[in-house]
Amino acid sequence: MKKNKHSEExxxxxxxxxxxxSETPQVEQTEAPAETIDELAxxxxxxxxxxxxxxxLMAEFDNYRKRTLKERIDLIxxxxxxxxxxxxxxxxxxxxxxxxxxxxxxVQAVKDGxxxxxxxxxxxxxxxxxxxxxxxxxxxxxxxxxxxTTFPAPTEDxxxxxxxxxxxxxxxxxxxxxxxxxxxxx
Length: 186
Prior knowledge:
Blueprint lengths: L1 H77 L2 H23 L3 H21 L2 E3 L12 E7 L10 E6 L2 E3 L2 E4 L1 E6 L1
Parallel strand pairs: 2-6
Antiparallel strand pairs: 1-4, 3-6, 4-5
């Protein structure tokens, strides 16, 4: 039995050593929460900085959105300004033509003056990308023409073609802004 007691004493010494060894890490564990607290404070500070940056970025974006919206509204208000300014000489020409019609007895001179104004106005439209849609003897095309009625075609070759144009159509830079109102032969 002495051996058993002796081995029990050896086992007891080993257990005591393990307990002592396990106490040492416990001392380190008391230091770990201090490091965790420092790390937590650092992360909290970083989180606050990121929240501040995010808030500033959101405010900056909101200001940008408001500024671009205001610029867009201003642009819409003044978008046609240059077009209208360029039309004012045509208005002046029409006013002069009206005065000339009141006092002139030469009908041909008045007619020539109105024709000049008309040609000037058509040139102005062409400069700004407005073109008349061709209709005379053209095939009917639903993309650019609007049929207001159909009429029996006087000849076979006019079937499906435009016989008459009631109202001219126009395109602006290849986009239809007004469809031609036409009579189509059947």
